[in-house]
Every structure is written in structure tokens, then in C-alpha cells.
Fold this protein.
Amino acid sequence: EVQLVESGGGLVQPGRSLRLSCTASGFTFGDYAMSWVRQAPGKGLEWVGFIRSKAYGGTTEYAASVKGRFTISRDDSKSIAYLQMNSLKTEDTAVYYCTRVMGSSWSPFDYWGQGTLVTVSS
Amino acid sequence: DIQMTQSPSSLSASVGDRVTITCQASQDISNYLNWYQQKPGKAPKLLIYDASNLETGVPSRFSGSGSGTDFTFTISSLQPEDIATYYCQQYDNLPPTFGQGTKVEIK
């Protein structure tokens, strides 16, 4: 059974950093691209970014709203994807979901974690 | 970025009703269109990918159609467990973008 478990969320002050982890199980992690999607309280879904599998270069893409502040990485030996968030802003407050990417592109997102809440506030 | 416009924003229907949601893309996205269901307090779930392909394990009362800029999502017979918000999402171009969601309630 495919499982994605996010961790690392919490309350953080504006301008500070936070790193989220996504621990995967039930599939060959290294074969898949992984993506992060967020949802601000009471709002819709917003794609944050993704990392390709090593077979496709392991490169990353980001939403304009987080580019230069957020970094996605992966450790295939541990089946973990990371989202390093720097220079956090109040508008980054959201539930952050880790997703598996179906196929060789950047979507669809066929499995989702339960989400972890990040609150950016002073 | 490609804009995705869903309608309606919300709807109320009776159990057994046929429910239809539309999604319009701001430019041609071929069939690179997915539909997700999000129940309150839960993560989204993929229902339909590539406009019309039913994800494994998803009940056959859910279906999708369309190509280009206009897409339709249908629940053929609404069930109480279908209460949720439904999102369309395109992935023809980066960044992948979502519609604003359609909240489905039971009348």
C-alpha cells in the first residue's frame, strides 16, 4: 500500500525557515517524481513545486510564488522528499501536501499524504 | 499561467441525481486535465486523469469528458459519500494549475 507521511510543520515566525519531510513507503520511491501542493486555510489548491526522478535528471521546478525561497530535494536511499522553506511569509501559511506524480510528467498526483500545517505568524 | 475556471462554485442536489461540473481552460490543454475529490479535513484524491480515465478503484458513477478548453465531470447518481469539493487541474504547461473548486452538497 502506497503511503506518504509528511512531518515538520508547525508555527514559525516570518522570515524564518522550516523543513518539511515526506516519508514514502509501498512503492519504489526512486522511480517517481514527487511534488508538493499547498492549501491555505479555507482556500483552494496551489502547486508548490516538484522534483523529477533521477532517471529524468532529478531536477526541480517551482511556482513563481516560492521560487528562490523554497527548495525541494530527495533522498532515494531513505525514500524521503524534502521541502526546505526559507524566508517564510505570512502568505505561506497552509497545509502542505506531499504527492506522488504518476507517469513521466509533472502530474497527475496519484497519491497524497495527509498534509502538515505550516503557520507563519509573529 | 493557464487559468482554470470551474462552474458552479457550489451546488446542492438530491441523492440519486445526476451532477455535472464544468471546467474551462484559458487555452488549449489537449486532454491534460485531472479531477480530484477532497472531503472535509482530508487530502485530495485523484478520480479522473487525462480527462476521461477513471483512476483504479474509483466507482464507475464518476466520469469525465472533454478536450481542448472545455471539460465536464459527472456523477451519474449522487451518493451521500460524494459530499466533497471537486477540483479540476491542468498539466499541459508548467505550472500545473487548479480550478477554484466546486462544493457539492446534499439537498
